[in-house]
């Protein structure tokens, strides 16, 4: 009886197991599902990275503004060079994606004159691409806040994904002349974020 019971249990365990062919089929299906999901995952990753960069830049602008008001002086935000000491990037087109610096700019020359003036530095957001433009589409070398916290210029900041042909991966930050900062709104009809005038951002431009 024991022997018969033992073989019966062994047969049941064998029946519950998987054959090599069944295992290969399961693995093939799993690989296919991963392959199909990969593009969506990549887009989601790039989109989230753009959102993080947009929020970080908005926070740095708010820091610059509050520092200008608190100290009663001019504070500037500028793109920085990719290597070496913290120096504002003066080479066009201005590459904000290398990172940016917030510094007290008492002489209003838009340059980091002393390390003591530095307030905060943000590292590169590459491979994301970032542009800071005015109403006429002119790229800006820096953003300055006066002692009242005003920037005296309206700007659109576009932060786009590595694939600049896909505008849906981009994010926008809006700077008002009053110095107020806000994240751009999403156009639900196109799934593209908008600039301060309500137009969809164009990462490919």
- Helicity, as a percent range: 25-40%
Query: Major β-sheet, in short?
Result: 4 strands, antiparallel
The best one-word shape is: elongated
Strand order of the largest sheet: 3-2-1-5
Low-confidence stretches: none
Strand content: 15-25%
CATH C-level class: Alpha Beta
Cα end-to-end separation: 82 Å
The strand count comes to: 10
The CATH superfamily title: minor pseudopilin epsh domain
The helix/strand series, from N terminus to C terminus, equals HHEEEEEEEEEE
Number of domains: 1
Which CATH architecture would you pick? 3-Layer(bab) Sandwich
Give the CATH topology: minor pseudopilin epsh fold
Radius of gyration: 27 Å
Short description:
This protein has 205 residues and is an alpha+beta fold. It contains two helices and ten strands.
Describe the overall structure.
By secondary structure, this protein is α+β, with helices and mostly antiparallel strands. The protein has one domain (44-193): minor pseudopilin epsh fold (3-Layer(bab) Sandwich). Helices cover 33% and strands 20% of the residues. The protein is built from two helices and ten strands, in the order ααββββββββββ. The protein has a four-stranded antiparallel β-sheet, with helices on one face. The longest helix has 52 residues, at 20-71. It is elongated.
Q: Which terms summarize this structure?
A:
205 residues; alpha+beta; minor pseudopilin epsh fold; 2 helices
Compile the SSE list and pairings.
Layout: H1 2-16, H2 20-71, E1 75-79, E2 100-104, E3 118-122, E4 129-133, E5 143-145, E6 155-160, E7 171-175, E8 181-183, E9 186-187, E10 192-193
Antiparallel strand pairs: 1-2, 1-5, 2-3, 4-6, 6-7, 7-8, 9-10
